[in-house]
Amino acid sequence: MSDVSAVREAGAADIASLLERTQAGDGEAFKTIIRLHQQKVFVLAYSIVRDREDALDVAQETFLRLYQKAGRYRPGHSFQAWLMQMAKNISIDHYRKHLKKRREWETATPLEEIPVPAAPAREGDSASSDLRAAFSRCVETLAERQRMVFVMRHYSELQFHEISETMRISVGTAKSLHFKAVQNLRKRLAPILGVEP
User: DSSP assignment of 25-83, as one string?
Assistant: First the structure.
């Protein structure tokens, strides 16, 4: 079973149980939470700080904070949205503390190097690799809020209501930002794909 499937099967009761066990000192329960959510936290962090090492630091800080605040989770609410809100806040704080690194973004690790599930490429199929790299570059050029919504929707597979909770915006705004992101990506990819935008 993939981690994504495991997350979907881990309902609110399962998460609440894992958090209770974590508070009681059960390291395995905490490791399970990390395993199920670490990639999504990393991808969100990277979409904000745009540096692999910084994103790893943010992910580590997010799970440390989760360990400290496990008792504050309110059953009945989306755990994933709560965790992603925490990751977003830590990412923004980290970004603000490291303003000088903004100048280094041009040399930062590109999005295509993030460990995101993808269809396995056939041997010698450099076209799909080139297209993926071009797509990642286009995602990076989106306005910040559009990029965050797009990454949360497609890389982290959050639902719009979870994105709205995470970003503290309405569901309608989340959908609108996603629509604009998709439209902008289509326009930017059209010349690469040789189609009309």
Answer: T-HHHHHHHHHHHHHHHHHHHHHHH--HHHHHHHHHHHHHHHHHHGGG--TTS-HHHHH
E strand spans, the chain: none
Q: Are 142 and 150 in contact (CB under 8 A)?
A: yes
CATH of 1-105, one of 3.40.30.10, 1.10.1740.10, 3.40.50.300, 3.40.50.2000: 1.10.1740.10
Tens digit of each residue's pLDDT (9 = 90 or more) over 120-146 = 444 445 555 677 777 888 888 888 889
Q: What pLDDT, in 10s, does the model give residues 19-72?
A: 999 988 888 999 999 999 999 999 889 888 878 888 899 999 999 999 988 888
